[in-house]
Amino acid sequence: MGEIKHDAPKVTSPLRVFITFESIGWFDTTQEQKESDILPQLNSVLEEWKSNGSELLATFDRDILTAGQAGPANWHACFLYNVPDLQTITNMTHAFRTAGLDRYFRLEASIGRPFFLLEKQ
Questions:
Q1: What pTM value is reported for the model?
Q2: 19/17 Cα distance (integer angstroms)
Q3: Is the bond leading into 72 cis (omega within 30 degrees of zero)?
Q4: For residues 9 and 112, what is the distance between their CA atoms, to the nearest angstrom?
Q5: In a 3-state reduction of DSSP, which class is residue 27?
Q6: How confident is the model at residue 1 (pLDDT cuts 50, 70, 90)?
């Protein structure tokens, strides 16, 4: 078996970004608020993200075996993106603030890189 060389981590471009999405105030709203206000606004922000130079790689929603508050994982869903730069990530999270969605959802972005043994760069 060949030797695997593991160099120090490098910041790749585009940035690999893991965004966790937690419902916070969502559970304190009515079905009407969800359908008429919150979901259309959320959809609008997520649509805006499609034109910011980022690439959605995958999503993961934990709702198959969970209901209610996020629990110890502290997130309900996550999004995996390739994003061109740090400012774009900042703009993505800030979009939730300016839309007022931070009242209902909490986002947190983590920056990493492709796993070297599975994705050769």
A1: 0.85
A2: 6
A3: no
A4: 9
A5: helix
A6: low
Residue 6 lies in a domain: no
Please give the DSSP secondary-structure letter assigned to residue 31.
H
Write the burial class of residue 63 (CB in 10 Å: 0-12 exposed, 13-18 middle, 19+ buried). Answer: exposed
Residue 63: inside a domain, yes or no?
yes
C-alpha span between 3 and 54 (Å, rounded): 35
Are 22 and 104 in contact, with CB atoms under 8 Å apart?
A: no
- What is the spatial distance between Cα 66 and Cα 110, in angstroms, rounded to a whole number? 23
Count Cβ atoms below 10 Å from residue 61 Cβ, excluding itself.
Answer: 11
- Per the structure block, which two tokens stand in for 77? 């869903």
Domain of residue 81: give its range. 15-112
Number of domains the chain contains:
1
CATH number (domain holding residue 37): 3.30.70.60
Which residues of the chain form beta strands (DSSP E)?
15-23, 55-61, 77-83, 105-112
Instruction: Render pLDDT for 41-98 as a digit per residue (tens, 0 to 9).
Output: 999 999 999 999 999 999 999 888 778 777 777 889 999 999 999 999 999 999 999 9
